[in-house]
Amino acid sequence: MTATAASAPFRVAAVQTVTGTSLDANLARADALIAEAAAGGAALVLLPEYFCMMGRSESDKVAVREHDGDGPVQQFLADAARRHGIWLVGGTLPMWCDDPARVYNTSLAFNPRGERVARYDKIHLFGFTRGTESYDESRTILAGRTPVSFDAPCGRVAMSVCYDLRFPELYRGLAAGDGTSLILMPAAFTYTTGQAHWEILLRARAIENQCYVLAAAQGGKHENGRRTWGHSMLVDPWGEVLATLPEGEGVVGGVIDPARLAEVRQNLPALRHRVL
């Protein structure tokens, strides 16, 4: 997709939740936080991974998976984007795949008219084992294959989800040509891995791609017993953390400033110096 040239500051916000097991309750809470972000002037709002469901078991999401273009979560996102007149990116929701025991973990972007402009199926699936703590997303999730970006008033926006953050080659590919203005990172980082690596990785992706990174996280102790790290934040192209929300539900954000993007890229033209 051809990047658009941003000409004016563009306010963005990340919503942080502590998602539970009730789909209806989760959507109601997300709706209130989206409204808070929009009232604060955000033109683009990012929800976290699993904003609509964190079940008591990993298979619970299979029961609420939706067909492409049809389902209550997709309708909720489209309606919220249109009602508030914002760009809205729905962290992730479970989408139908041919395997009856698995889903795609899908991020959907909607424009201010409520029209879907992009779909990204999470490519890298999290696996971690240390002592009694163990995760294997591949048991219930089918990996996507295609990197995705879309154009918004702030420029090119790169989509990604959680574990993707550890794979810099994904973002390098998306930043080809005129570069990326904003990387989106909806996530549900565990407390263990988030405490160790979350901020370091977010800042690294911003620095090496000379762009803003907006991260919306799950942040607290969930009904299913899982604890997530939180620390939703906005990072600028120099790697500076502009705003962060350590834990609990809420909204955090700031401004995507095209002048700041241009300044960083002019002072240190690393993207133009690439050889490989």
Automatic annotation (TrEMBL):
CDD domains, per the entry: nit (cd07572)
State the organism of origin.
Answer: Cupriavidus necator (strain ATCC 17699 / DSM 428 / KCTC 22496 / NCIMB 10442 / H16 / Stanier 337) (Ralstonia eutropha)
Q: Which protein are we looking at?
A: Carbon-nitrogen hydrolase family protein
Pfam families under this entry? Answer: CN_hydrolase
Please give the family membership noted in the entry. Belongs to the carbon-nitrogen hydrolase superfamily. NIT1/NIT2 family.
Q: Which GO terms describe its molecular function?
A: hydrolase activity, acting on carbon-nitrogen (but not peptide) bonds, in linear amides; nitrilase activity
Q: Organism's domain of life?
A: Bacteria
What the entry lists under InterPro entries is as follows: C-N_Hydrolase (IPR003010), C-N_Hydrolase_sf (IPR036526), Nit1/2_C-N_Hydrolase (IPR045254), UPF0012_CS (IPR001110)
Q: Does the keyword Transcription regulation apply?
A: no
Q: Does the keyword Calcium apply?
A: no
Q: What is its EC number?
A: 3.5.5.1
Q: Which UniProt keywords apply?
A: Hydrolase
- PROSITE patterns, alphabetically? CN_HYDROLASE (PS50263), UPF0012 (PS01227)
Record-annotated CN hydrolase domain positions: 10-258
